[in-house]
Amino acid sequence: xxxxxxxxxxxxxxxxxxxxxxxxxxxxxxxxxxxxxxxxxxxxxxxxxxxxxxxxxxxxxxxxxxxxxxxxxxxx
Length: 76
Hints:
Elements: H1 5-18, E1 25-27, H2 32-40, E2 53-55, H3 58-72
Antiparallel strand pairs: 1-2
Helix pairs in contact: 1-2, 1-3
């Protein structure tokens, strides 16, 4: 099976929004490769380090919220 990494990245970014706390931080308990790709895309700060959470960039926070709504919100 071939995996669409773009879809994985979108889902991880949306799920990061689910763990949003302290205004712009999210728990970083996701696949390291996906987290690195999100960092390379400028959506999160560097995920490497001892901290258990990662900081969204301004664009990353907006995109995370949009994807969360798109993927997980019920239609009215």
